[in-house]
Amino acid sequence: MEKSIIIAGYGGQGVLFAGKLLSYAAIIENFNTTWIPSYGAEMRGGNANCSVKLGDDEIGSPIINKPDILITLNTQSFYHFEKNVKSGGTIFLCGDEDEIVKSRDDINYVFISLKKITKNIKQLSFLNIVALSAMIRKTGMLKIESLILALNKLIPKDKLNILTSNIEAIKLSAQIVFDNKNSKVLV
Fold it and tell me: Interior CA angle at 117 toward 98 and 176, to 5°?
């Protein structure tokens, strides 16, 4: 098995952190993995994305031209990367279905409603963790427990409040119900 994932959004949304977290969780489960960040010169608000590959065998190249999975934290990233997703792939879009125009019928779309999520999350800054957790739960490629173990490795012990908030965001994802008929996430 080899899976390629692109996570994209604005700088400051935790895109790179989510990719690093995914890579660490894959390592915990004994997968080979790569992580490549890509971002502009802006501190916040510019485009940011990262590429993560994970698999059973050695990974020949970390470059991803056609991801199996795309996680977008904003609509701009959705429109930028939608065309690149492999046929049969899946896009996890943080937004509502009525906010975008789907241009393909050969991929799966999963909408994570910001309106529903923000009612249950203290800070929108944890949307990256909720989206990543939702993807892991929907695909089953990794265990949620591995994500929590990876958080413990990535977040320093002196930042216990950040660690606790991220774990709460992962637990929020356990409340997410997937409406497979309509490809929506219901909270």
Answer: 100
